């Protein structure tokens, strides 16, 4: 196997949840461009159809097209087990197998802990943690049949304090622990389970909250406090590829260089 082949995901049928925009869409486009067949899902069909159309259009310049993998769009609320089972069935019906699952679906809002309602807390945990539970369990047998890979998209908020995001941080911490535990349980089934935990990434949400867009990211600056969706997709693609065949149960924190205030003083 060549070096390029080891880092490739070509031929791997991959489900990417929460793929209507941002990190999920970028992952789907990168995988398809590399030759993987991709199933993208979102809670609303109208939000995910344009992703599949762009990937399947050879003239669009994003994703697969004539030289890459195909893409199927499926409406799926990851908190609904019946919908998730239908997602898995649709994937197998279309492509015959599942080689990788990227649990990217997530949601949050900022609020002091004491102001978070019970419904708000449950909703955030349901999408970020229970959604991964539903998808991974539903796809488990198919993944075992292909020596497949699971990549959970968590957050650095799950590894440290996340001011005004206690619900989100708690859910992502649970997702990180699920990654470690499932990697042990499913090793005998030939399934690798890993996690990527992004820091601040230039998505539409970050642009709305902080006024920073992908156009503002300057990689000539060593102080890399904001990442791009492409950089998170790069890490995800590596974790699915054979280049990461000796990696399981790990959480890769993709957060760039910390600020000067966070660095220890030199002796």
TrEMBL record:
Organism, as annotated: Candidatus Halobonum tyrrellensis G22
Per UniProt, which keywords does this protein have?
Oxidoreductase
Q: Which biological process terms from the Gene Ontology are attached to this UniProt entry? A: fatty acid biosynthetic process
UniProt-listed InterPro entries? KR_dom, NAD(P)-bd_dom_sf, Sc_DH/Rdtase_CS, SDR_fam
Return the protein name: Ketoreductase domain-containing protein
List, alphabetically, the NCBIfam families matched: PRK07231.1 (NF005559)
Q: Does the keyword tRNA processing belong to this entry?
A: no
This protein's record includes keyword Oxidoreductase? yes
Lineage: superkingdom: Archaea
Citing just one GO molecular function, the answer is: quinone binding
């Amino acid at each position: 196997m060549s070096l390029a082949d080891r880092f490739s995901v070509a031929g791997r049928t991959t489900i990417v949840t929460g793929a209507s925009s941002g990190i999920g869409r970028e992952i789907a486009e990168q995988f398809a461009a590399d030759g993987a067949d991709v199933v993208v899902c979102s809670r609303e069909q109208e939000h995910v159809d344009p992703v599949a159309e762009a990937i399947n259009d050879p003239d669009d310049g994003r994703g697969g097209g004539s030289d890459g993998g195909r893409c199927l769009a499926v409406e799926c609320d990851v908190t609904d087990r019946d919908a998730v089972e239908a997602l898995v069935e649709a994937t197998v019906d279309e492509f015959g197998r599942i080689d990788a699952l990227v649990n990217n679906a997530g949601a949050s809002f900022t609020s002091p802990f004491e102001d978070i309602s019970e419904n708000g807390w449950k909703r955030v945990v349901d999408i970020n943690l229970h959604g991964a539970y539903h998808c991974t369990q539903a796809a488990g047998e198919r993944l075992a049949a292909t020596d497949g890979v699971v990549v959970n998209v968590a957050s650095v908020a799950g590894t440290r304090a996340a001011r005004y995001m206690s619900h989100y941080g708690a859910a992502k911490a649970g997702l990180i622990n699920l990654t470690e535990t499932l990697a042990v349980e499913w090793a005998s089934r030939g399934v690798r389970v890993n996690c990527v935990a992004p820091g601040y990434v230039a998505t539409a949400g970050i642009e709305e909250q902080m006024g920073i867009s992908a156009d503002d990211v300057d990689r000539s600056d060593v102080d890399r406090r904001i990442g791009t969706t492409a950089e998170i997709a790069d890490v995800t693609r590596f974790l699915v590829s054979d280049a990461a065949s000796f990696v399981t149960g790990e959480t890769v924190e993709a957060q760039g260089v910390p600020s000067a205030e966070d660095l220890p003083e030199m002796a």
